Amino acid sequence: MKSFIFDMDGTLFQTDRILEIALDDTFDRLRTLNLWDSGTPIAKYREIMGVPLPKVWKELLPNHSFEIREEANDYFHERLIQNIENGNGALYPNVEEVFMHLKKEGHAIYIASNGLTAYLSAIVAFYKLDRWVTETFSIQQVSSLDKGVLVGKIIQKYGIENGAVIGDRLSDINAAKMNKLTAVGCRFDFAQEEELAQADFVIEDLSEIIPLSAKLNNIQLS
After folding, report:
1. What is the Cα–Cα distance from 23 to 11, expressed in whole angstroms?
2. Which of 36, 46, 121, 180 is the most buried (most CB within 10 A)?
3. Model-wide pTM > 0.70
4. CATH number of the domain at 3-14+91-218, out of 3.30.565.10, 3.90.650.10, 3.40.50.300, 3.40.50.1000?
């Protein structure tokens, strides 16, 4: 049996569909409170997408207090969840088909994300991903906020010896390498070429996981 550890945002879930709406709502609120006086930093967020939310808000609101960042984060999180529950998001093409294939072949599926627990739970519940996913792990479960440590937690809990981490950003690739798993980079919405260059494999569509899964036993990683 092989184990497949998937990132959520920008890998399984098309975060782009709800990101701008939620971010605009958050910065509209900050403007209403006279805490922001310019445009919503969508481009900046896209650039740093994939890092834990506390780091996101430190980048987006560098001159604001910790309390204001926390309030912005909480409001943003609420808006994301509401948009998920309203059906404004979407999975990437072929997520369900890939999951069904992997489970049919006897492989284990996990999710490891820099997203918060309630946000991840909303996605899993709305799309019924727990039909296939053994467990979903949030970065909130490790004090270091390091995805490599989070993936290590999954490996330790489930005794994983062979498998891959699939994601769109460097944190996913590094998490795979840190734990001696295959790093599969996804050339999706938030991906950056210089980061993908460090992956063992790069895919354009999740359906490519199906033929790749058969090769993992023969992959020798340094």
Report:
1. 20
2. 36
3. yes
4. 3.40.50.1000
